[in-house]
Amino acid sequence: MPRRQAEIMDAAARVFAAKGFHGATTQDIADVLGIKQASLYHYFASKEIALETVCIVGASGFYERAKIIVDGADGARDKLAALIRSHHEPLADHADYIRVFLHQRQFLPSTSRRKIGRWSRGLERLFERVISAGIKDGTFRAGLDPRLATLAILGMLNGVPAWIDKEGRAIDVIASGLADLALGGLLRR
Amino acid sequence: MPRRQAEIMDAAARVFAAKGFHGATTQDIADVLGIKQASLYHYFASKEIALETVCIVGASGFYERAKIIVDGADGARDKLAALIRSHHEPLADHADYIRVFLHQRQFLPSTSRRKIGRWSRGLERLFERVISAGIKDGTFRAGLDPRLATLAILGMLNGVPAWIDKEGRAIDVIASGLADLALGGLLRR
DNA sequence: TTGTCTGCCTATAGTGTTATAGGGAACAGC
DNA sequence: GCTGTTCCCTATAACACTATAGGCAGACAA
User: Fold this and answer.
1) A39 touches strand C (CB under 7 A)
2) Quick one: B171 exposed, middle or buried, by C-beta within 10 A (0-12, 13-18, 19+)?
3) DSSP 8-state assignment for residue B139
4) pLDDT at residue A1, as a whole number
5) A-contacting residues of B 161-180, CB under 8 Å?
6) Of the residues A8, A166, B10, B182, which has the fewest C-beta atoms closer than 10 A?
7) Cut 0.85: pTM above it
């Protein structure tokens, strides 16, 4: 992606994250960049396509990183901890893209929405697989519902972008803390 | 609230939840009810005020129920489990109101947004207080970050409305499962 | 010098959306 | 039979937003 176009997309991501896709106007995006509204259309064909571009950037990488972890040689405990940690990595440099992906992708046209939805479900399956394996080999508690545990953990993780900027904690402190909580829970052992 | 107005608000909540505040039009709401767009303005003065009404309904009750639990005589473990369970109660009868509260309240005018924001922060403090007390009395692990644990648990809980309709699990099964996960984690003891 | 590309501009058509104004019909209570 | 209330209607003003058309200036290459 050409440098200038990346700047345009940064502005779009920022505005979409702050105001939502429908609440954001192309004028808002242009204002961030200091250019005229119509000038944006040299960089994207429509507002909807801008959203698609932002969402794809926001979603990309999660599945690939997770796949490498799951295919590795670690045990279920280390794999799950690594999955949770790696889920935080993209927050460092493009948090807005991820926020847009999480909450605005529902407004994509159905074709691209479905494509991106497949990545999400793929990621869920990776978590679920690790948890199921951990139950089977005795690392995790018997009687757990792997699907429910997956949704619980991903819910916890996907909530992070909403508060990370307000709480004064470094990303890797949060990542480690959440991995520890998911594995060990609150109760004293 | 008069019966008919409650029906209007149900429709508004449904449409706001499905399309977002800015993505929803007053025409969409009227279509759900089978009346004309302009007729809605007998029931609310503006779309923004309709959002405020829906958000207040969606937010109400959480803090009050939590306060009763926290003020009770149980130990930290039972209090936290009860907090998590009680967080699911309103999902049974007005899930759409809660979805709107969770994701659309950011579009409220600042006065009402701040009022509703105070309820949220109040709820967070109740969770945090229980967790801190539990650490102090040895129920929960030493070294936990109570604030981080609160945000993790609330993130997990606030993710539920997004998937509850798609996964075929009863609400109280979910509520118990999540309380168990938060307390015990995944690892075998 | 001519052509091409990038980056931006002005102007505006076309459309969708909110909200207001001013009714009308049915029904209840007196 | 009069009055008020509830529920809904038509019509439209006023405005905001997306996207297109067509152009201009500077950089750079042939």
Assistant:
1) yes
2) middle
3) S
4) 78
5) 162-163, 167, 169, 174, 177-178
6) A166
7) yes
